[in-house]
Design a protein that fits this description.
The structure holds two protein chains of two kinds.
Chain A (H helix, E strand, L loop, with lengths): L5 E11 L4 E12 L4 E5 L6 H8 L7 E6 L2 E2 L5 H9 L1 E5 L10 H7 L8 H14 L15 H12 L6 E5 L7 H18 L2 E6 L2 H7 L2 E6 L2 E7 H6 L4 H8 L4 H9 L2 H4 L5 E9 L7 H9 L2 E12 L2 E11 L2 H13 L3 E4 L10
Parallel strand pairs in A: 3-8, 3-9, 6-7, 7-8
Antiparallel strand pairs in A: 1-2, 1-4, 4-5, 9-10, 11-13, 11-14, 12-13
Helix pairs in contact in A: 3-5, 4-5, 5-6, 12-13
Chain B lengths: L1 H6 L1 H5 L7 H33 L8 H16 L2 H7 L1 H8 L4 H25 L4 H9 L4 H12 L1 H22 L6 H11 L4 H29 L2
The chains are: A alpha/beta, B mainly alpha.
The complex binds adenosine-5'-triphosphate and magnesium ion.
Chain lengths: 354, 228
Amino acid sequence: MAQPLIQLKNISVNFKNKERDVLAVDNVNLDIQRGDIFGIVGYSGAGKSTLVRVINLLQRPTGGEVLINGEDICQYDAPKLRQTRKKIGMIFQHFNLMMSRTIAQNVAYALKGSPLSKQEKQDKVNELLDLVGLADKKDTYPRQLSGGQKQRVAIARSLANDPDILISDEATSALDPKTTESILNLLQELNKKLNLTVVLITHQMEAVKQISNKVAVMEQGKVIERGSVLDIFATPKTSLTQSFIDTTTRLDATLKGLAQQDNLKHLKPGEQLVQLSYSGDTTDEPIIVSLYQKFGVSANILYGNVEILQGTPIGSLIVILSGDAIKVSESLEFLTQSGVRIKKLNLADFGGDN
Amino acid sequence: MDFLKQYIPNVFDNWHGDYGFEGAISQTLYMTIISAIIAGVIGLAVGLILVITEDGAIAENKTIYNITDKIVNVLRSIPFIILLALIGPLTKIIVGTTIGPQGALVPLVIGTFPFYARQVQNALVQVDKGVIEAAQSMGESNFGIVCSVYLKEGLPDLIRASTLTIISLVNLTAMAGAVGAGGLGSLALDIGYKRFQNDVTIVATLMVLLFVFVVQFIGDYITKKVSH
Ligand SMILES: Nc1ncnc2c1ncn2[C@@H]1O[C@H](COP(=O)(O)OP(=O)(O)OP(=O)(O)O)[C@@H](O)[C@H]1O
Ligand SMILES: [Mg+2]
């Protein structure tokens, strides 16, 4: 594999104060390749912000190395570090625009030390504002903009020095769903158009699902699970990851609803309630049909959902399998061999028996 | 004119010359403006030191913060009238005299800059930490952050603080009149109070008030101009 653009090696951040020590980041190793949209999810306090602030050394790690393009930037002197930071854009939950400057001045601020001529700077600012669709707001002040517009200005500003990396720390958390979607689309577009590597911190798994290709899940300062978005969504290994994924589907609500249904509370002998998850090619096979044809097992579909992640379909079905008990277990065997993940469900777990 | 003369005769008698209203007004202006400039520069610097060395700020430094903080507190807690007497010798060394408007400059500066430093600190700690972090992420230096973020983003509050400080400085110049600093304060005390010429006291007071109003008006106007 190519040299990762960002490599975090054994990174720890320990906040010491009088009352207590907080190990906000606990020995994290992370490789981010050029062109990735790398999602980092975790609940509040998991250490996401602290971890990404290490990437541009806004937070110095108490242990470990930060390699950008293979160079340990912790060894840089102050001017060199400032130069490096210009190549790492950053956007924030609360936009962090300067209220005393116009939109154009906010973007131009990022070009303060650049060798460009005055005219070139002006052109660059216009070009960036065009890119984020705010050319007409040039001379207004941030106070007059909506949240989504402010974030667009912040994005334009973060791109002023043609960075290789864009760090987005909860950049959509203060926005409504529709605006969130448009900002995420913009990030994805920038990723494709400028080959920009994006580090996307969020507690909204939906955002990761929408644009990331890789994801890491954090809990208590540690990365507890990582991989391609496809793998993580198809085969989550920890319950935390599962619960993040569940927030992006209606599955939980569906199961709760099903648990209220009388006929499902008391399944007949030979009936088995299962959740089938499958991804990629498996989806194309008419599995339900083959269950009947091969085993005489019928599948009553209660819920179905297919999503396209990174161009690959990921499906989820909740079905009641019924037929001869031996045939049912044979059919489950067959499904497993075909690459379908099976989870036997007990509705009592979802509040059915109260 | 004759009508006015009838009610405030002593004001007219005491109008001209260094020891009259003419002199007093220019002395008050002199003391206020010169000490505002000097105390302004020192206070701004000290205020900035407090802001940037505070815990979690861009140049965090507990030792410098604590020392500066203590000095400001101590200086602020000395009553001005005592300060006048206390630093007489120092004044003599710096400006060569302890009387007249010049002699008042040193105590006025020392009495004002800690107050202004605290005002500056209060104004600038309100500058959004996120904006400072954003500037850092853009590769801005600490010096750049002070100039382009703190002073620029905090400007409206800074001007409000300056207005307040100048007004309190006007009050101090009047008090300095008690030790022969000259100005409207001296006039009110030496002529109005000691010679029972109440009209002089009243007119001197009105002039101080007018002065305060003008400062407040200009301050508010500029604050409004620089707020977006
Ligand atoms: N400057 C600091 N000093 C002391 N403790 C800190 C500091 N910054 C963060 N922490 C602690 O480190 C832990 C991780 O914080 P961090 O902000 O990285 O979490 P997060 O995952 O970004 O959370 P959120 O989703 O709320 O932004 C928390 O327990 C927090 O209290
Ligand atoms: Mg955070």
